[in-house]
Amino acid sequence: MKNRRLNASPVHPLDSFFLRNTIGISGTGFFWGLGLPVLLESTFLQVYLRKLGASNLLIGMVPAMLFAGLSMFGLFSGYLTNHLESKRKAVIVTHVFGSLPFPLLGIVLLATGFNSFSIPMFFISYGLFSALLGLMAPPWQNYIVKIFSETSAVQGLSGMWIVKNTTKIISSFIIARAFERLTITA
Predict the structure, then answer these.
(1) For residues 130 and 65, is the Cβ–Cβ distance under 8 A?
(2) Contact (Cβ atoms closer than 8 angstroms) between residue 134 and residue 80
(3) Which of the chain's termini has less CB crowding within 10 Å, N or C?
(4) Hey, how many other C-beta atoms are within 10 angstroms of the C-beta on 42?
(5) Residue 95: phi, psi to the nearest 5?
(6) What percentage of the chain carries pLDDT values higher than 90?
(7) What is the C-alpha separation between 175 and 22, in angstroms, rounded?
(8) What's the 3-state SS for 40-84?
Protein backbone atom coordinates (compact mmCIF):
# COMPACT_ATOMS: atom_id res chain seq x y z
CA MET A 1 0.00 0.00 0.00
CA LYS A 2 2.85 2.40 0.79
CA ASN A 3 4.41 1.81 -2.64
CA ARG A 4 1.18 2.87 -4.32
CA ARG A 5 1.16 6.17 -2.48
CA LEU A 6 4.79 6.81 -3.32
CA ASN A 7 4.21 6.11 -7.00
CA ALA A 8 0.94 8.06 -7.24
CA SER A 9 1.20 11.36 -9.06
CA PRO A 10 0.92 14.41 -6.84
CA VAL A 11 -2.44 16.18 -6.65
CA HIS A 12 -2.46 19.49 -8.50
CA PRO A 13 -3.46 22.47 -6.29
CA LEU A 14 -6.26 23.43 -8.72
CA ASP A 15 -7.87 20.00 -8.35
CA SER A 16 -9.04 20.90 -4.85
CA PHE A 17 -11.24 23.60 -6.47
CA PHE A 18 -12.51 21.39 -9.29
CA LEU A 19 -16.12 21.07 -8.09
CA ARG A 20 -16.44 24.76 -7.22
CA ASN A 21 -14.98 25.87 -10.56
CA THR A 22 -17.09 23.42 -12.54
CA ILE A 23 -20.27 24.59 -10.79
CA GLY A 24 -19.25 28.23 -11.32
CA ILE A 25 -18.70 27.98 -15.06
CA SER A 26 -21.73 25.70 -15.40
CA GLY A 27 -23.89 28.41 -13.81
CA THR A 28 -22.72 30.84 -16.45
CA GLY A 29 -23.25 28.15 -19.10
CA PHE A 30 -26.81 27.70 -17.85
CA PHE A 31 -27.74 31.32 -18.58
CA TRP A 32 -25.85 31.44 -21.88
CA GLY A 33 -27.63 28.23 -22.84
CA LEU A 34 -30.99 29.89 -22.26
CA GLY A 35 -30.06 33.01 -24.24
CA LEU A 36 -28.03 31.73 -27.18
CA PRO A 37 -30.88 30.06 -29.07
CA VAL A 38 -32.77 33.35 -29.00
CA LEU A 39 -29.81 35.49 -30.04
CA LEU A 40 -27.69 33.30 -32.29
CA GLU A 41 -28.71 29.76 -33.01
CA SER A 42 -32.28 29.88 -34.24
CA THR A 43 -34.48 31.66 -36.73
CA PHE A 44 -36.22 33.59 -33.95
CA LEU A 45 -34.43 36.87 -34.72
CA GLN A 46 -35.09 36.61 -38.42
CA VAL A 47 -38.80 36.00 -37.88
CA TYR A 48 -38.95 38.74 -35.23
CA LEU A 49 -37.26 41.24 -37.57
CA ARG A 50 -39.54 40.22 -40.45
CA LYS A 51 -42.56 40.91 -38.21
CA LEU A 52 -41.12 44.36 -37.48
CA GLY A 53 -40.85 45.00 -41.23
CA ALA A 54 -37.09 44.59 -41.71
CA SER A 55 -35.81 44.04 -45.23
CA ASN A 56 -33.91 40.93 -46.30
CA LEU A 57 -30.71 42.99 -46.33
CA LEU A 58 -31.20 44.06 -42.71
CA ILE A 59 -32.03 40.52 -41.64
CA GLY A 60 -28.86 39.32 -43.40
CA MET A 61 -26.85 41.88 -41.44
CA VAL A 62 -27.50 40.06 -38.15
CA PRO A 63 -24.85 37.33 -38.62
CA ALA A 64 -22.51 39.83 -40.28
CA MET A 65 -22.70 42.08 -37.22
CA LEU A 66 -22.11 39.13 -34.91
CA PHE A 67 -19.02 37.91 -36.75
CA ALA A 68 -17.64 41.44 -37.11
CA GLY A 69 -18.11 42.06 -33.39
CA LEU A 70 -16.47 38.78 -32.44
CA SER A 71 -13.57 39.28 -34.85
CA MET A 72 -12.69 42.93 -34.40
CA PHE A 73 -13.47 43.32 -30.73
CA GLY A 74 -11.96 39.93 -29.92
CA LEU A 75 -8.61 41.14 -31.24
CA PHE A 76 -9.00 44.39 -29.33
CA SER A 77 -9.87 42.50 -26.14
CA GLY A 78 -6.87 40.23 -26.47
CA TYR A 79 -4.66 43.28 -26.77
CA LEU A 80 -6.31 45.01 -23.77
CA THR A 81 -6.22 42.01 -21.44
CA ASN A 82 -3.00 40.30 -22.50
CA HIS A 83 -0.98 41.98 -19.76
CA LEU A 84 -3.39 41.06 -16.97
CA GLU A 85 -2.07 38.38 -14.63
CA SER A 86 -5.62 37.43 -13.60
CA LYS A 87 -8.44 37.68 -16.11
CA ARG A 88 -11.17 37.20 -13.48
CA LYS A 89 -12.22 40.87 -13.19
CA ALA A 90 -12.19 41.29 -16.98
CA VAL A 91 -14.40 38.20 -17.29
CA ILE A 92 -16.88 39.49 -14.71
CA VAL A 93 -17.04 43.02 -16.14
CA THR A 94 -17.48 41.85 -19.74
CA HIS A 95 -20.16 39.32 -18.73
CA VAL A 96 -22.12 41.96 -16.80
CA PHE A 97 -21.97 44.54 -19.59
CA GLY A 98 -22.46 41.89 -22.29
CA SER A 99 -25.75 40.87 -20.72
CA LEU A 100 -27.24 44.38 -20.70
CA PRO A 101 -28.11 45.33 -24.32
CA PHE A 102 -31.18 43.11 -24.72
CA PRO A 103 -32.80 43.63 -21.32
CA LEU A 104 -32.36 47.37 -21.91
CA LEU A 105 -33.89 47.00 -25.37
CA GLY A 106 -36.82 45.15 -23.82
CA ILE A 107 -37.35 47.92 -21.27
CA VAL A 108 -37.22 50.59 -23.98
CA LEU A 109 -39.67 48.65 -26.18
CA LEU A 110 -42.05 48.15 -23.27
CA ALA A 111 -41.89 51.87 -22.47
CA THR A 112 -42.18 53.18 -26.04
CA GLY A 113 -44.00 50.37 -27.79
CA PHE A 114 -43.11 48.98 -31.17
CA ASN A 115 -42.71 51.83 -33.61
CA SER A 116 -40.52 53.03 -36.46
CA PHE A 117 -37.54 53.15 -34.09
CA SER A 118 -37.82 49.48 -33.08
CA ILE A 119 -35.62 48.18 -35.89
CA PRO A 120 -32.83 50.77 -35.38
CA MET A 121 -32.98 50.15 -31.60
CA PHE A 122 -32.67 46.41 -32.21
CA PHE A 123 -29.62 46.86 -34.43
CA ILE A 124 -27.96 49.21 -31.94
CA SER A 125 -28.56 46.61 -29.22
CA TYR A 126 -27.34 43.76 -31.40
CA GLY A 127 -24.24 45.73 -32.40
CA LEU A 128 -23.43 46.41 -28.74
CA PHE A 129 -24.08 42.77 -27.87
CA SER A 130 -21.79 41.57 -30.69
CA ALA A 131 -19.00 43.96 -29.69
CA LEU A 132 -19.29 43.06 -26.01
CA LEU A 133 -19.34 39.35 -26.87
CA GLY A 134 -16.12 39.92 -28.81
CA LEU A 135 -14.61 41.70 -25.81
CA MET A 136 -15.74 38.86 -23.55
CA ALA A 137 -14.46 35.86 -25.49
CA PRO A 138 -10.65 36.10 -25.15
CA PRO A 139 -10.47 36.71 -21.37
CA TRP A 140 -13.20 34.11 -20.77
CA GLN A 141 -11.37 31.46 -22.77
CA ASN A 142 -8.09 32.32 -21.06
CA TYR A 143 -9.75 32.22 -17.65
CA ILE A 144 -11.52 28.88 -17.98
CA VAL A 145 -8.39 27.01 -19.04
CA LYS A 146 -6.45 28.40 -16.08
CA ILE A 147 -8.93 27.38 -13.36
CA PHE A 148 -8.41 23.65 -14.03
CA SER A 149 -5.33 21.49 -14.00
CA GLU A 150 -4.30 19.84 -17.26
CA THR A 151 -5.70 16.52 -16.07
CA SER A 152 -9.12 17.88 -15.02
CA ALA A 153 -9.76 20.54 -17.69
CA VAL A 154 -11.68 18.25 -20.04
CA GLN A 155 -13.98 17.00 -17.28
CA GLY A 156 -14.65 20.53 -15.97
CA LEU A 157 -15.33 22.00 -19.39
CA SER A 158 -17.46 18.98 -20.31
CA GLY A 159 -19.64 19.64 -17.28
CA MET A 160 -20.16 23.22 -18.42
CA TRP A 161 -21.01 22.14 -21.99
CA ILE A 162 -23.49 19.53 -20.78
CA VAL A 163 -25.32 22.17 -18.73
CA LYS A 164 -25.16 24.75 -21.54
CA ASN A 165 -26.41 22.35 -24.22
CA THR A 166 -29.19 21.06 -21.97
CA THR A 167 -30.46 24.59 -21.37
CA LYS A 168 -30.18 25.32 -25.11
CA ILE A 169 -32.60 22.47 -25.71
CA ILE A 170 -34.94 23.81 -23.02
CA SER A 171 -34.73 27.30 -24.53
CA SER A 172 -35.48 25.91 -27.98
CA PHE A 173 -38.69 24.34 -26.68
CA ILE A 174 -39.62 27.66 -25.05
CA ILE A 175 -39.06 29.44 -28.38
CA ALA A 176 -41.17 26.84 -30.22
CA ARG A 177 -43.95 27.25 -27.66
CA ALA A 178 -43.78 31.05 -28.00
CA PHE A 179 -44.12 30.74 -31.79
CA GLU A 180 -47.18 28.52 -31.35
CA ARG A 181 -48.78 30.63 -28.66
CA LEU A 182 -48.23 33.95 -30.37
CA THR A 183 -48.92 32.50 -33.83
CA ILE A 184 -45.72 33.94 -35.19
CA THR A 185 -44.94 32.86 -38.74
CA ALA A 186 -42.42 33.95 -41.30
Answers:
(1) yes
(2) no
(3) N
(4) 17
(5) -70, -40
(6) 49
(7) 28
(8) CCCCHHHHHHHHHCCCHHHHHHHHHHHHHHHHHHHHHHHHHHCCC
pLDDT in tens, 103-113: 999 899 899 88
> From residue 179, how far is each of 63, 100, 115 by CA, in Å?
21, 24, 21
Cβ-contact 149, 15 below 8 angstroms: yes
Distance CA 45, CA 37 (A): 10
Q: What is the pLDDT of residue 145?
A: 85
User: In this structure, how many other beta carbons lie within 10 angstroms of the beta carbon of residue 159?
Assistant: 18
**What's the sign of the alpha-carbon dihedral 86, 89, 95, 101?**
negative
Looking at every residue in the chain, the average pLDDT score rounds to 87
For residue 37, give Cα distances in angstroms to 17, 112, 115: 31, 26, 25
Rounded to a whole number, what is the distance in angstroms from the first to the last CA of the chain?
A: 68
Tell me the Ramachandran region of residue 164: left when phi exceeds 0, alpha when psi lies from -120 to 50, beta otherwise.
alpha
15 with 152: CB under 8 angstroms? Answer: yes
